[in-house]
Design a protein that fits this description.
- There is one protein chain.
- The protein is an alpha/beta fold.
- The chain contains 14 helices and 16 strands.
- The strands form four sheets. The protein has a six-stranded parallel sheet, with no helix packed on it. Strands 11-10-9-12-13-16 form a six-stranded parallel sheet, with helices on both faces. A two-stranded parallel ribbon has the order 1-4.
- The chain is elongated and about 70 Å long.
- About 12% of the residues have low confidence.
């Protein structure tokens, strides 16, 4: 019932789109799909828009108690596309549509992130959730996806975003650090990483390392960097902040920036693992007390991360835990000086340049 009273903050639209083949159930990343689909045949479902013809059909006693889900089902049924796609792969509501819509509409999902923690959003198992095709990050996620979603066609393509940006891959003779920062804090592990890298740079008389943040310049993050790093340590790095809108096709998008570097260091950032699939020279530097947890400098809240050793995704020599600086210097020197050393590379994620497999599957669906 609360959804009805929220109508005042929504844009009301009194007619449905016509001649639509593709519905995109994603508020943010729909620009990506336009690179592969006919934009004129696409319709994007946005959370702040209400289509009155569909809404009127759910104003009854049977549908009103789950009005949001039923509204989306009615809207999709009335438009009657060939395919519904989403990047919002951890939105359990999306997987309810197929069971409730009795039409020959194909539902496709693209796994948004390789983080296992995102599966916490699922409340029901595969008896209640269905999908026709899921494009996943790799074999590791198949069991998890099948636990929560009834889907016979799961294809491992890696990162749809990275696959699209493959043309931009090049190797500058520069070093990049990808930090796993959140919006307003930096972890103890990341601070230790920066302090040790700074010491290494000064000892070796190296050029400054670039540090990539996924978010816009943030006063709180700047405060913590200045608080926990000395002026000499800060001077060892060039800080790169995201600019403009969070558009996956933007030139300053973190994925595009990371493509350009030759050597990449990271502290368990999911993007760092995706760079492995691009045959980048990557090393994961772990400075937390335990691989499976991290502590925020701001409020000491625990943040769980994937323990890659126990999951057997990455060889143990890829993830290093350091007891002291000398141990760190030894490992980093090995990484930095061995130009053709493939021991530090392991394909943890599939890589499908240009998303050719997706194009093939899309062509096959449209033919049928």
């Amino acid at each position: 019932m609360k959804s009805i009273f929220k109508l005042f903050i929504y844009k009301l639209i009194f007619s449905l789109p016509k001649d639509i083949d593709f519905i995109i159930f994603s508020d943010q990343h729909h620009e990506y799909f336009f690179e592969y689909l006919d934009k004129k045949k696409c319709f994007v479902i946005k959370k702040k828009e209400i289509y009155i013809p569909a809404f009127l059909k759910v104003l009854n006693f049977r549908d009103i108690f789950n009005i949001r889900l039923n509204y989306y089902c009615k809207l999709i049924s009335l438009i009657n596309p060939k395919i519904v796609l989403t990047f919002d792969s951890y939105n359990e509501q999306y997987y309810k549509f197929k069971n409730k819509i009795n039409k020959n509409i194909k539902f496709i999902a693209f796994q948004k992130t390789p983080l296992f923690t995102e599966f916490r959003f699922f409340r029901q198992d595969k008896k209640f959730n269905s999908c026709d095709i899921i494009f996943s990050f790799g074999n590791l996620y198949t069991d998890k996806l099948k636990k929560y979603i009834n889907c016979k066609n799961i294809y491992n393509i890696g990162s749809f975003i990275n696959n699209h940006n493959y043309k931009h891959i090049n190797n500058k003779k520069k070093n990049l650090i990808i930090l796993r920062t959140h919006s307003n804090f930096i972890s103890k592990s990341e601070i230790k990483l920066l302090k040790n890298v700074s010491k290494f740079i000064r000892e070796k008389n190296l050029k400054k390392f670039d540090i990539l943040f996924k978010n816009k310049k943030n006063d709180k993050l700047v405060y913590y960097l200045k608080k926990y790093l000395s002026l000499n340590e800060l001077d060892s790095f060039n800080f790169i902040w995201r600019k403009g809108e969070n558009n996956f096709l933007a030139r300053n998008r973190s994925y595009n920036i990371a493509n350009k570097y030759k050597n990449i260091l990271f502290d368990r950032s999911s993007m760092g693992y995706e760079m492995l699939a691009k045959k980048k020279k990557v090393i994961c530097l772990n400075f937390s007390k335990k691989i499976g947890e991290d502590f925020c400098l701001k409020n000491n809240v625990k943040f769980k991360v994937i323990n890659f050793n126990t999951k057997k995704i990455i060889k143990k020599k890829i993830i290093y835990s350091f007891k002291n600086y000398e141990d760190f210097k030894k490992k980093l020197s090995f990484f930095y000086l061995k130009k053709r050393d493939n021991n530090l590379f392991l394909e943890t994620l599939p890589f499908d340049p240009g998303n050719s497999f997706f194009k093939q599957k899309l062509k096959s669906i449209l033919k049928n």
